[in-house]
Amino acid sequence: MAGAIASRMSFSSLKRKQPKTFTVRIITMDAEMEFSCEVKWKGKDLFDLVCRTLGLRETWFFGLQYTIKDTVAWLKMDKKVLDHDVPTEEPVTFHFLAKFYPENAEEELVQEITQHLFFLQYGDYDPTVHQRGFLAQEELLPKRVINLYQMTPEMWEERITAWYAEHRGRARDEAEMEYLKIAQDLEMYGVNYFAIRNKKGTELLLGVDALGLHIYDPENRLTPKISFPWNEIRNISYSDKEFTIKPLDKKIDVFKFNSSKLRVNKLILQLCIGNHDLFMRRRKADSLEVQQMKAQAREEKARKQMERQRLAREKQMREEAERTRDELERRLLQLKEEATMANEALMRSEETADLLAEKAQITEEEAKLLAQKAAEAEQEMQRIKATAIRTEEEKRLMEQKVLEAEMLALKMAEESERRAKEADQLKQDLQEARESERRAKQKLLEITSKSSYTQPMNSGMTALPADLPSFNLISESLSFDFKDTDMKRLSMEIEKEKVEYMEKSKHLQEQLNELKTEIEALKLKERETALDILHNENADRGNSKHNTIKKLTLQSTKSRVAFFEEL
């Protein structure tokens, strides 16, 4: 009885200790994941679990986003997940997205980017795979962009494919970085916009990004009217709907603005604090964690560099082997064709020799027959001459027969001589035909001697003639030990790669400009939006995002605060 009570108590105790859980769905750009979370978990517990699952170490750029009544919000690290205003039905859904953006992607990003880019979806260009129509079902461009140009989907695909093919062989990390370098120079990159009012009640837009706070005209989100970099701001706070910004220079008065919603104020403050922290962090020495990450990244880059070099060498040798194989197969085919032609020539020579021999024999027999007839004619002439016919008529007839016999004998002699010459010519032709036949047999013998084949290179390769170059050197090259640990040489190669990378980047920018120029003529101006027009005006004036902000911050903080108040 006591044992039964103890068992029930133990079971009840375990049941009480078992934590309650709820299901969370995390949506990334590439996939959806579900986790079972404890009710006591804070935002950091869930966020760390997601980052570990994704293998992400540069966690400070990312966050878990959700929506409350059409307002975007981010999961707070120090607050319980269920204490947020998240939907109560399960699974509770969050989007794993970039919350903050680097100032300079090339300098700041250590890990490989995991964005779902075109390059990652399709891999390197392969003409046997990426043929006409392979992009037909893809939405690679926004409809607004497609409608802006007088170009058919086929024309877009042709240009995209041509550019895709031109960048064949580019490493994945290079492609990702070039994508981000283009994106980070866009005016609206990493900017979060919020509707605000200054003291005068003027409606404005507040832009919060990695560089600082920017004030925009509501009709122009591209070009700020005033900018306050983070290194000029000491403190940001809000009470109800009013924000107070304290400049670093304590002699300068604070400036204030109002936003419309309390929830938005919380989001603004979150983004301001996070961006300000990252801004200051970039300007300090790297933490031990970041130093370790950068060291690992350098090692990984060195390893990948060696791997790329190894693959490049293998690819080069494979291509050379394929070219050699193709050349040997071409030569083999040529030899086969020559052998066939030699066989045919031999057959023709043999047939010609047989015909000439037969014709020579017939001609010789005809010459003999003519000679015999000539002899008979001569005998007849002698017999006729011996006949003693005295009458004039007989004499005339005799003379006529003698004349005919002489003419016949002369004709027979000429024919005999002609036949003899023809027989000599046929004998000469026969001799030449037999000489041609001998040469054809000799050439066929030579070709046959070259047709002793070596072992095939692989199961799918045609056998090759024995006297042609073998693949011993290639095999030796393929067995080369690629585990080269000479770091000095590797450093030189990495430095060389950097120079080549800079040249590639410059060339890429030139290509982008060429592409813009090429399709500019096909743009439908009447379909341009207000932002398109503003962007074009900035480009025509040479105003980029960075030089615009630089110009705006040339004035003193005090004058910019005063300007904001008077807007």
Notes on the structure:
- With 567 residues, the chain is an alpha+beta fold.
- 56% of the residues lie in helices and 13% in strands.
- It contains 15 helices and twelve strands.
- The strands form two sheets. A seven-stranded antiparallel sheet has the order 9-8-7-6-12-11-10, covered by helices on one side.
- A hairpin with a 7-residue loop joins strand 11 and strand 12 (255-259).
- Helix 9 runs antiparallel to helix 10 (392-449).
- It is rod-shaped, with a radius of gyration of 48 Å.
- The chain starts with a helix and ends with a helix.
Offer a few descriptive terms.
five-stranded mixed sheet, alpha+beta, 12 strands, disordered N terminus, 15 helices, 567 residues
Strand order of the largest sheet: 9-8-7-6-12-11-10
Percentage of β-strand residues: 5-15%
Largest sheet: 7 strands, antiparallel
C-alpha-based Rg, rounded: 48 Å
* Mean pLDDT, all residues: 78
> Topology as H/E string?
HEEHEEEHHHHHEEEEEEEHHHHHHHH
Given as residue ranges, the uncertain stretches (5+ residues, pLDDT < 50) are 1-7, 9-16, 452-484
Distance between the ends: 85 Å
**Envelope shape:** rod-shaped
The total of beta strands comes to 12
Helix content: 55-70%
**Secondary structure category:** alpha+beta
- Treating each run of at least 4 consecutive H or I residues as one helix, how many helices? 15
Brief summary of the model shown:
By secondary structure, the protein is of the alpha+beta class. Helix content is 56%, strand content 13%.
Topology:
Elements: H1 2-17, E1 21-27, E2 32-38, H2 43-54, E3 62-68, E4 71-74, E5 92-98, H3 105-108, H4 118-122, H5 143-148, H6 153-166, H7 172-184, E6 192-197, E7 203-208, E8 212-216, E9 226-229, E10 233-239, E11 242-247, E12 255-259, H8 262-282, H9 288-386, H10 392-449, H11 472-478, H12 487-520, H13 530-541, H14 545-552, H15 557-566
Parallel strand pairs: 1-5
Antiparallel strand pairs: 1-2, 3-4, 3-5, 6-7, 6-12, 7-8, 8-9, 10-11, 11-12
